[in-house]
Amino acid sequence: MANAPQLGPERERIGVQDRFTQHGDGFDLHFAGRLVLAHRAESPALAMARGAPTVEMYRGNFRIEDAPTDRIVPTECQVEADGVMLLEGGKPAARLALVDGRLSVELLRDGYDRIHLNFHAEPGEAVWGGGEQMSYFALNGRAFPMWTSEPGVGRDKSTALTRLMDETGMAGGDYWNTNYPQPTFLTSRWLAVHCTAECYSVLDFTDPSRHAVEVWSPRTVFELYAEDGPQELVGALSTRFGRQPPLPDWAIGGAIVGLKDGLRSFERLEGFIKAGAAVSGLWCEDWAGIRETSFGRRLFWDWRRDRQRYADLPERIAALEARGIRFLAYANPYLAVDGILYEEAAEGGHFCLRQDSDEVYLVDFGEFDCGVLDFTRPETRDWFAEKVLGREMLDIGISGWMADFGEYLPTDVRLADGSDPMEAHNRWPVLWAEVNAQAVASRGKTGDAVFFMRAGYSGVQGYCPLLWAGDQSVDFTRHDGIGTVITGALSAGLVGNAYSHSDCGGYTSLHGNVRTVELMERWCELSAFAPVMRSHEGNRPDDNLQYDSSADLLACFARWSRVHAHLAPYVRQLCSEATDQGLPVQRPLFLHYPDDPALFTVQDQYLYGADLLVAPVIEEGAKSRSVILPGEGPWRHCWTGADYPTGVHEVPAPIGQPPVFYRPDSAFAPLFAGLAGVLEG
Asked: For the chain, how are helix, strand and coil distributed in percent, rounded to 5?
């Protein structure tokens, strides 16, 4: 993978236009012909303060507050050759400088560690980014704290479920909570701004006249990117953060069936195959054992195969692979205190420590305690990559795994490299991804073995080959249900993540919220049009429907797995575009149709590459849905063959026939025309 950060290729061409200029009593900063900062006495570009934060964490859910003091808003300025000095009371307060597209900001007063920088915004300018955002694709009108955490259950303060989860453990979440934040935003002026800070920050778009960024540091750097259109801009960002390798044929050539039933998982898999499912993998996250908790069926966090639950696992893996089916597992960067690996890790000094002693810092993960592996130590990264991911997993034939968590680094631990955990917290998922990529590379499996992550931050793109959208509730709710996986894929795709998928069927089932047949069927329809189709039994498998709970559900899964497999040649082409151009597989409509502002906020349908348009049904009970067909027509309906002109249409969408359209002039039109027959069997 291309891990090294790179500046965009347009620097020389646009550099001559990048400059600060005096403007009356203030200044302007232009970049690539675009006004980026406009500092005036009545609307200053920068403010600063001293922070006084309080941070509370409970099981990966954070409550972060600040009580800043001594706020300064410098209004005087002195424009210099490569920057500008801001003064307050005639004394220097802060300095800004621009070199090669990198805008540095430094506060010059002792004790000041809160930067508030206001980027210029044009009327009607749309804004996207923020990493993987689950509730809102266009960020206009809202603020988004950049802090990796559990996203919450419900994520909507108006719902009873969210309020209940808040009351029982700060776990309800809100629209901005995400496993994968990233302080990068793109605008419809085809400008992108990336804040390089790893500390807590906030992207604030509540004021339409400015794009405000708050950074909890006395200094930071903002990288600026500008291109002629959205595809070029997305490509530049993917170059900066690192592009993923193409997905292997096995991962895109069928469905990965998720079962956590011990050896019975192999027996149940035969039922999927007998039903006609196109199966590329068996995913058994319980390979290391099970722990029953009040939350549901959890895993035993000691990353070695459970020889009783999975007897003869290497032999069974080999037998599956001989049939063209890979075996996948699960790991995360924490070790339970009652596991064998915990003892070895403690002896090797691999855990984060308490600040007041040399004792291991333990985190409550919900009725069991774990040590947090200290990935600031190279020895710890090497140990986990070799001992666990290498010997325990890859060496017995495991071809992929869920690399879970990464969001839980407490802010009061002691780290081996002496770094501030408030600074290291957001970096933790990137270190975790690096460890996984190191293990895969050590066995020569890059591009073949696939791990998938939910947690992330800037730079995770260069290590993690595949995202998954996290732990959606098993429902159709606006902020935590099936529809959020579309928003997540589109937002993450703009900042350099080519491949995303979700738990087919959803995951979180609490307080009587359980799967319905309709939800299971609609999720199959959605998952078939993602680069990877993978099912999950959820946190309470015994309380919920599974895809082999009935003949009808099994037939539904089989049908859509065949659709997914049928599209593999097209997805292979999209993987090439991701590698060559940095384009995501699932794309917002405006990526190919940037001249229509009406498309800027569309988050419930997407382009699957340039030639397929997918409008999943994500509302319970819907029999039709509104679909936007952009550009020049016609678009051909996959299931009926009828041609539709461009525009907005109310399209019939009974279960089993989600609105999917293709370009009749596409080189893949014959492949798409065959989808109806594949679906009918």
From this structure: 25, 30, 45
417 as an active site residue: the answer is no
The pLDDT score that the predictor gives to residue 366 is: 85
Amino acid in position 113: D
CA 169 to the chain's CA centroid: 24
The candidate with the shortest Cα–Cα distance to 243, out of 498, 572, 591, 468, is 498
157: Cβ contacts below 8 Å, ≥ 6 apart: 163, 166, 172, 174
Q: With H, G, I as helix, E, B as strand and everything else as coil, classify residue 526.
A: helix
Calculate ∠ Cα 24-27-31, nearest 5°.
140
CA 535 to CA 539: how far, in whole Å?
A: 13
Residue where the block lists tokens 């738990």: 503
Active site residue 347: no
pTM summary value? 0.96
407 is annotated as an active-site residue: yes
Instruction: Evaluate the omega torsion of the peptide bond into residue 634 and state whether it is cis, within 30 degrees of 0.
Output: yes
Among residues 198, 392, 404, 475, the one annotated as catalytic is 404
Sheet with 466-468, edge to edge strand ranges: 500-501, 466-468, 450-453, 400-403, 326-331, 279-283, 255-258, 533-535, 503-504
- Contacting residues for 488 by C-beta, under 8 A, at least 6 apart: 132, 133, 134, 467, 469, 470, 500, 502
First-residue to last-residue Cα distance in the chain:
39
Alpha-carbon span 484 to 224, nearest angstrom:
29
Query: Which residues lie closer than 8 Å to 113 by C-beta, 6 or more apart?
Result: 50, 51, 107, 216, 217, 218
Q: What tokens appear for 32 in the block?
A: 């690539």
- The residue written with tokens 């694709």 in the block is 137
Sites in the chain below the pLDDT cut of 50: 1-16
C-alpha–C-alpha distance, residues 259 and 268, integer Å: 8
How many other C-beta atoms lie within 10 A of the C-beta of residue 678?
17
**Residue entry with tokens 């019939």:** 652
Distance CA 207, CA 100 (A): 29
The beta strand positions in 67-113, using DSSP E, are 69-72, 76-79, 83-88, 91-99, 102-107
Strands 290-293 and 369-372: unpaired
The number of beta carbons lying within 10 Å of the beta carbon of residue 180 is: 30
Find how far residue 178's CA is from the centre of its chain: 8
What pLDDT, on the 0 to 100 scale, is given for residue 3?
43
Rg (CA), the chain: 25
Label the pairing between strands 279-283 and 255-258.
parallel
The distance from CA 464 to its chain's CA centroid, rounded to whole angstroms, is 10
Catalytic residue among 471, 480, 525, 537: 471
Tell me the per-residue pLDDT of 208-257, one tens digit each, with 9 for 90 and over.
Answer: 999 999 999 999 999 999 999 999 999 999 999 999 999 999 999 999 99
Q: What is the mean pLDDT of the chain?
A: 96
The closest of 238, 231, 241 to 430, measured between CA atoms, is 241
Where are the alpha helices (H) located in 77-203, listed in sequence order?
160-167
Catalytic residue among 18, 113, 407, 434: 407
- Tell me which residue of 75, 79, 74 sits closest to 22, measured CA to CA: 79
Are the CB atoms for 115 and 105 separated by under 8 Å? yes
- H/E stretch holding 128 reads strand 127-131
